[in-house]
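S.,

Sequence below, as promised.
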Amino acid sequence: MMHLEEIMAAVSVGQAGDRDAARTQLIALWEAVDDRQTRCAIAHYLADVQDETEDELAWDLRALEAVEDDQWLSSLHLNLADDYRRLAQPALAHEHLKAAREQLSRLPEGGYGELIRSGVDHVADALAAGNVHRLESSPST
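The prediction came back faster than expected:
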């Protein structure tokens, strides 16, 4: 994937706490590329550095529009389910959780696959409890 090093550098900036700088870097990359899969990755990471759930939802929807690799689908639908859960739109959250679950069999065992599978369970539990607050990313740690 073109620009992978630049994307990961921006993600690192965001993970270090400078969400504004990460957004600026990722938006510049978004505007510089026209390859759908790279745009999917950029939008996916841009969603993670948004301050408002509505903005996060907008970037998650852009990522879903650009996706070409089926392995991303479960993660993208999981993120959308969580966005809609936090926006108190349970019907849409359930719809995207169902879509995420339908894609889980495509994921590898271990690591990434297990992260997404546990994320689906975590969001489903929060949705069932009526929780609309931001969840910890890694509930098992």
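The helical segments are 4-15, 19-32, 36-48, 53-66, 73-86, 90-103, 111-128.

Coffee later?
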